[in-house]
Amino acid sequence: MSKYTPESHMESYRTLIFACAAAFVVQAIFVFLDGYTLGTFMGWLNSSHVLISVIIGFWLFQNRKNIPSVRSLEIGFFILSAPFLVTTWIGESTGLALGQLRQPFVPLQFLCIYIAVLSPGRVIIAAFEILVTLVVAVTFWFVLKAQYPLTGVTGEPYATLTYGLVALMMLSARAYRKGIIQKLEKTKAEAEAFERAARLFLAVRDRANSPLQVINLCATLIVARNPDETETVERLQRSLVKLQELTDILAETEVWRETYKAGGDISVEIDKTFSKLV
User: Fold this and answer.
1) Secondary structure class of 258 (helix, strand, coil)
2) At CA 264, angle to CA 259 and CA 267, rounded to 5?
3) H-helix or E-strand containing 205?
């Protein structure tokens, strides 16, 4: 059975929508910035990333009533985020080759945070994507250092590795918070289910009280009119006592409701009630 509840599945879907919007806005801005500073090719390259975000966004919109699986959402996010690596490598290399003052690792630092905050689905997949980004960053640093010796005095790749570590910590905190929320939602759902069960038991008790009273009265009349039926009536009365005990146990579910309304733990009261039925 999948560990993803409908709520967490929907959350992953919405998270990917936000990721698409963020990628669209950022790359749409750089279509003009990089197109102006780095040339037409970079403008078109960023435009292709914008197009990818639009396509994924349209796919999500088309499937809004039949949300894709979490794995499909993870694949969609990978397709959305991977072009950042390509545009960063090509764009920053081009800028440095043109003699521009650049901060070539800032986009990769942004990508680490982007993945930590907006990745849908499983934490292990997002952590893997962050690690891949860091590997690319270190590789990029070695390539740049071989071409531009001053790269070695910029504090890289340690600054980007620090961003990656922070991103992993953010991802861990996000996963922990999500787990707590899911547990709270599950506990709330169980408490509400028990509260409904308590109302049902009380309704059964109330419906059973009047017939029991009538049967008890009839048994008394039978004894008064037919003393010879005493043994039969005694059996009937013993059965009535057991039924009365059952209705008394059902009445204890009122305690469930009071405990639930007071915000207490109703599991203890439930165990006490069910122990009397065993």
Assistant:
1) helix
2) 80
3) helix 158-225
Please tell me the predicted confidence (pLDDT) of residue 1: 38
Rg of the chain over CA atoms, in angstroms?
34
CA distance 14 to 218: 65
User: pLDDT, tens digit, for every residue of 249-259?
Assistant: 776 677 666 76
What's the first-to-final CA gap in the chain, in angstroms? 31
Mean pLDDT of 223-234: 71
CA-to-CA dists, residue 215 to 10, 69, 200, 255, angstroms: 55, 58, 23, 28
Containing 147, the helix (H) or strand (E) segment is helix 123-147
The pTM of this model reads 0.72
Structure tokens belonging to residue 124: 């292990």
Show me where the domains of the chain are located: 6-156, 190-275
Distance CA 85, CA 92 (A): 11
Summarize pLDDT for 230-245 with one digit per residue, the tens.
677 777 777 777 777 7
| The two structure tokens encoding residue 121 | 């689905």
Percent of the chain as helix, strand, coil, to the nearest 5: 85, 0, 15
